Amino acid sequence: MSAGTVTPSRCHIDLAALQRNFARLERVAQPGALMPVIKSDAYGHGLLPVARALAQAGARRFAVGTVDEGVALRRAGFSQEIVPLLGCLSEDWRAAAAHTLTPLIADFEDMDRAAACSHHDRLFRVALKWDTGMNRLGFSLEDMPDVVERLRLTPGIAPVLAISHMACADMPEKIAFSREQTECFATISGALRAVFPDIACSLANSAAMLALPKSRFDVCRPGIALYGGNPLADTVWAKRGAGLEWVMSVSAPVVRTRLVRAGRSVSYGQMFIAPKDMTVAVAAAGYASGVAHTLSNRMDVLIDGHRAPQTGKICMGLLMADVSAIPGARAGDTAWILGGNAAPGVSPVTAFEMARALGTIPYEILCRMGSMNPRVYD
Ligand SMILES: *Cc1c(COP(=O)(O)O)cnc(C)c1O
């Protein structure tokens, strides 16, 4: 999205915070062991700027979503190993091979397609995808003898990575299931290593790498934690993800403030009636810039470092907030929808808080805000 087109609200991306999160997570895993997950436009933070910042911080691999995202990285000059997590659709195979991506092989059809793109003089590096409990994509442990045999017969394909995905790593109450997945993957990893000694094994997402050391294997794939979300925040394991910093914040200009008399309503439908004389700020963000209408009367924004309760229905491009307790608030101020500098004792609004109010997860908030607002890189 180009700046200044649809909405005056802005998504601010703090790349230095991203790099600090990367360094912190690398210390949890081991040097060189991270494969940052930058799928879906880096969770709304912008594929290329995020990849650049992470490469600078030392990333040697990237997990993207689509083959197109991988090709975009290659075209921008990235030489890291790139794994498109969504797998290849039929027309993607040649692009993956041509741009030396490391595509997922999740079934025997994939193996045939990869074989058709491989050359004897140039190995096609691939990642084997295993199902250990998601029941989504990947081979099962029972497929192992066939997988190994087929790979033996296809010398053009080099399996360099084995991947599986945790279903419940952010749920302490499901630790038995997480252990089952980890043990299953350990068996898979052992069997593969016996045949391909150099294969790297990767199971852990953010929650798993923070909470379950045995899930770390060779390569960890953090996503949400890189962007500052502690996936364990609401659990008894919260401390294991402490210290991460949010990378995204969202601002909207306050376009005016006005006095609303006691008993008068604000915005559509008279959902909010002023209980007393109050000062209301009008800020230029709304559901067209990602602030869900469902949040009407149910969220705060941060103005002048203080929380202002949002009042009345959220409009397409505007929202109102009660600034009666923030005497300095005036047109030209910034209303922070997410993040911003809070006064001592005040906490900024986080993607977790917004997600809870909406009955969703912070991932969705980041994707939504990042794709619906022009991004600026601080
Ligand atoms: C999205 C994704 C991740 C990252 O998950 P987080 O919970 O954001 O850390 C890792 N692996 C796979 C396969 C994914 O799809």
What distinguishing features does this structure have?
binds pyridoxal-5'-phosphate, TIM Barrel, six-stranded antiparallel beta barrel, 2 domains
Describe this structure in words.
The chain has 378 residues and is α/β, with parallel strands linked by helices. It has two domains: 32-234, Alanine racemase (TIM Barrel, Alpha-Beta Barrel); 248-377, Lyase, Ornithine Decarboxylase, Chain A, domain 1. Helices cover 30% and strands 20% of the residues. The protein has eleven helices and 16 strands. Strand 6 (157-163), helix 8 (175-195) and strand 7 form a beta-alpha-beta unit. Helix 1 crosses helix 3 (47-57) and helix 10 packs across helix 11 (362-372). The chain binds pyridoxal-5'-phosphate. Residues 37, 39, 85, 165, 205-207, 221-225, 231 line the site of pyridoxal-5'-phosphate.
Q: What's the gist of this structure?
A:
The chain contains 11 helices and 16 strands.
Give a topology summary.
Layout: E1 10-13, H1 15-28, H2 39-44, H3 47-57, E2 61-64, H4 67-75, E3 81-84, H5 92-98, E4 104-105, H6 108-117, E5 124-129, H7 144-152, E6 157-163, H8 175-195, E7 200-202, H9 206-211, E8 248-260, E9 265-266, E10 272-273, E11 278-283, E12 300-303, E13 306-311, E14 319-322, E15 334-338, H10 351-358, H11 362-372, E16 375-377
Parallel strand pairs: 1-16, 2-3, 4-5, 5-6, 6-7
Antiparallel strand pairs: 1-8, 8-11, 8-15, 9-10, 11-14, 12-13, 12-15, 13-14
